[in-house]
Amino acid sequence: MRFSKHNRALIWTLAISLALVPAAARADIIQGADYLNTTSGQFDFGSPIGTVNFVSNPIGPGTTDTIVQRQSDAVVNGPAVPIMITALSLESAAPVNIGGSFFDVFVSLDPANLANDTGTLSVMGTSTGGTFSSTLDVFFEIQFIPLVPGPAPSPIFGETMFTGSGTWTSQAPPESVNPGAGFFPTGTEASLLASHSVQPATFVPEPSTWIHCAWALLAMPVHYRLRRQRKA
């Protein structure tokens, strides 16, 4: 089969173009959701409350308390892609003293601004892992629940812009709640008001499950002794 000079030129141009594209740049991360677990968090309320430490308040699956949607495929070392935070659930690490009364404090997304919780994600590295950077505009709601019945401060609604960075891997952690995601980030995002560190969420046995297992193990020798006594 013979090619014209024009066709040969096109073939050479295509071959050279493909050869010049780095392998990492052709490694896509498919659009999907990141199910995350908070390892630490802080929010500065200012005077008189000050800075409050927050921990995970899981909503599931597993230890998930934060969900971020990657709204399009991401190309490693390519342009930033749009993201949206669709779930956030944190609680104060300890009751907070406000004017002599103690409250548990809960953070979630403002239901009136869910469509505005958006940002961008840039992924660097290779097809198996690397680093990432992100921006995320978060509209939040903070509620104060008294430890004893009584009046509570009104909920606080606000907005803060986070910038984040960290590492990622394509390898799912053990007991991952979303093992097929292909993108598992660990990192920290911070703003003028708050900081928030996360890791991939996992399934963990509930405390009741451990208790049942422990009782089952303790009962095994007793059951074995009873069977031997009956046979005797």
Please give a structural write-up.
The chain is α+β, with helices and mostly antiparallel strands and 232 residues long. The chain has one domain (26-204). The protein is built from two helices and 13 strands, in the order αβββββββββββββα. It has helices at 5-20, 207-231; strands at 28-29, 32-44, 51-56, 66-70, 74-75, 81-92, 96-98, 101-109, 118-126, 129-146, 156-169, 184-190, 194-200. The strands form two sheets. Strands 2, 3, 4, 6, 7, 8, 9, 10, 11, 12 and 13 form an eleven-stranded antiparallel beta sheet that branches. A two-stranded antiparallel sheet has the order 1-5. A hairpin with a 2-residue loop joins strand 9 (118-126) and strand 10 (129-146). The chain is elongated, with a radius of gyration of 25 Å. The chain starts with a helix and ends with a helix. Mean pLDDT is 85; it is low at 18-25 and 208-231.
Radius of gyration, taken over Cα atoms and rounded to an integer in Å: 25 Å
Note the main sheet: 11 strands, antiparallel
What shape does the CA trace take? elongated
Strand segment tally: 13
Portion in helices: 10-25%
How many distinct helices? 2
Provide the domain count: 1
Which features would summarize this protein structure in a list?
two-stranded antiparallel sheet; eleven-stranded antiparallel beta sheet; single chain; 232 residues; disordered C terminus; alpha+beta
